[in-house]
Amino acid sequence: MGVVGGVVLTAEYGPMVDAAALEQDEFERLLAAEGRRLFAIALAVLRDPEDAEDAVQETAVAAWRGWSNLADPGHSRAWLTTICLRQALRRRAWLRRRPSRTDSDERLAAVDRHLEADGRYLDLHRAHARLSRQQRAVVALHYEHGYTLSECAVLMGCSPGAVASHLSRALARLRKELRDD
What is the dihedral of CA 40, 43, 49, 55, to 10 degrees? Predict the structure, then answer.
């Protein structure tokens, strides 16, 4: 008996499909296809590439644990997005409770210096940074990734009214921050 390419070879029964290997292959293909999008969502919430990578890794772990319980494989993309968004929001809350993050502060300052040198994105970057984590999440999901407000509500785990409120406040804040005086 042996395993070759996800197929179990037995002397008695011939080739049998190894379901666990096929499930793992399917999961890995999904993560490979969605990885960049998940990273962009996490980055929009966390504003730090290293923290976003950590959130995506935590998403992969949580998704693998729940993979066998996924009721409808056709909804796996939305399911992964929800896990990623919630991981990023949890990570952001956890990071705020930490006493000091000088290395992260230095990286953000380096990004600001780069943007100042470029001159095009500084105002938007600073305005975006002043939004709450929920506001950044709904702006990223709705405007960057094209989700409807109802879909954002499902992904964020709150009511559509709360999502509309977060979006309205985010847009008002961005308008105020970006207004030319």
Answer: -90
User: What is the extent of the structural domain holding 34?
Assistant: 1-98
CATH code, domain with 75: 1.10.1740.10
Helix axes 76-97, 149-156, angle to 10 degrees: 60
> Residue 133 corresponds to which tokens in the numbers above?
């984590």
Q: Is residue 104 part of a domain?
A: no
51-101 pLDDT, tens digit per residue, is 889 999 999 888 888 887 777 777 788 888 888 888 888 887 777 766 555
Residue 179, domain member (yes or no) = no
Q: pTM for the full model?
A: 0.55
Enter the tokens of residue 170. Answer: 């985010």
